[in-house]
Amino acid sequence: MTPTIISKEQLPLNNKLRKPRVEKMHRDHINSSIEQLKCLLAPEFLKQQPDSKLEKADILEMTLNFLLFTCCQSRLLQMCPKMR
């Protein structure tokens, strides 16, 4: 097989065509992960604000709050064994 020779003119065009596709894959991956978090957090969120739409930033903020609460709670249980 003979090696394919790519001219300098073709290379940037190929990258320009590929970049939007790669960016879309990244966005789809992020959106999929946020949707999974939304499914995990939805029952808790509906208790607080039943008529509100979950925005991506809200989902991320609720996840962060949950993780911080869980972390603090486990540290508190380690420090105060009588609370178990």
Could you characterize what this model shows?
The chain is mainly alpha-helical and 84 residues long. Helices cover 75% and strands 0% of the residues. The chain has two helices and no strands. Helix 1 crosses helix 2. It starts with 9 loop residues before the first helix and ends in a 5-residue tail after the last helix. The model has no long low-confidence stretch (mean pLDDT 77).
Question: How are the secondary structure elements laid out?
Answer:
Elements: H1 10-48, H2 56-79
Helix pairs in contact: 1-2
SS-based class: mainly alpha
**N to C succession of SSEs:** HH
Write down the Rg: 23 Å
Mean pLDDT: 77
Tell how many strands the DSSP assignment holds: 0
Q: What is the multimeric organization of the chains shown? A: single chain
Shape: elongated
Report, as a whole number of angstroms, the end-to-end distance.
70 Å
Helical content (DSSP H or I, runs of 4+)? over 70%
Mind summarizing the main beta sheet? none
| Beta strand % | under 5%
List the uncertain runs.
Answer: none
Helical run tally: 2
Could you name the key traits of this structure?
mainly alpha; 84 residues; 0% strand
Short description:
Residues 14-70 form the BHLH domain. By secondary structure, the chain is an all-alpha fold.
